[in-house]
Specification:
This protein has about 190 residues and is an alpha+beta fold. Helix 4 runs antiparallel to helix 5. A hairpin with a 4-residue loop joins strand 4 and strand 5. The radius of gyration is 22 Å and the shape is elongated. The chain is built from six helices and seven strands; from the N terminus they run E-E-H-E-E-E-E-H-E-H-H-H-H. Helices cover about 40% and strands about 25% of the residues. The protein has two domains: about 120 residues, Probable tRNA modification gtpase trme, domain 1 (Gyrase A, domain 2), CATH 3.30.1360.120; about 45 residues. The chain has a seven-stranded mixed beta sheet.
């Protein structure tokens, strides 16, 4: 079972090396935990308004690593998880990304379980069950047809269809009940 009162961190970009990697931190202590590893060249994360980014440096003294980074701040309740959320965009070197995640955990974050960011979005009402399942389908899609099906579900097509069917069922039920009432009156 997922806990939502603590602060979690995880790598949110594709596994393996790349030009950039994203490490996400969400929860009540997201800003403080991210500040333990990020040195802003401009305003600090706490002073940064919501939906803003700042360039700076990721400093991991215990690993003797310093690398350019950009931090994005998403303010509660307007983030994906409806919690304070920080995304750290860093060079996609696997050693750097793993060291950053280790440092965030040492600073008080818990390693997120698979799907936990989306679970928090679901529990907070940001996404409904069909959208949460669609995110899982997209992540695990093994071919284009599965990916397309997940994207359609994420766009709310399944939810719209269910809502339409629920309305039709309610109308049919009302008609049946009215017919029964009329038959009883005769």
């Amino acid at each position: 079972m997922f806990r939502t009162e603590d602060t979690i961190a995880a790598i949110s970009s594709a596994a393996g090396p790349g030009p950039r990697a994203v490490v996400r931190v969400s929860g009540p202590k997201a800003i403080a935990i991210a500040q333990a590893t990020f040195r802003s060249a401009g305003p600090g994360l706490a002073e940064l308004g919501g939906f803003r980014s700042t360039d700076g440096w990721m400093v991991l003294a215990e690993h003797d690593i310093q690398a350019p980074a950009r931090a994005y701040r998403f303010v509660c309740p307007r983030s994906y998880t409806r919690q304070d959320l920080i995304e750290l965009h860093v060079p996609g070197c696997v050693a750097i990304v793993n060291a950053l995640l280790d440092a965030l955990i040492l600073s008080g974050a818990r390693l997120a379980e698979a799907g936990e960011f989306t679970a928090r979005a679901f529990f907070s009402g940001r996404v409904d069950l069909s959208q949460a399942e669609a995110v899982a389908d997209i992540i695990s899609a093994s071919d284009e047809s599965h990916l397309r099906a997940g994207l359609v579900a994420l766009g709310g097509e399944l939810r719209k269809l269910c809502k339409t069917l629920a309305c039709e069922i309610a109308e049919t039920l009302a008609t049946v009940e009215a017919s029964i009432d009329l038959a009883e009156e005769r």
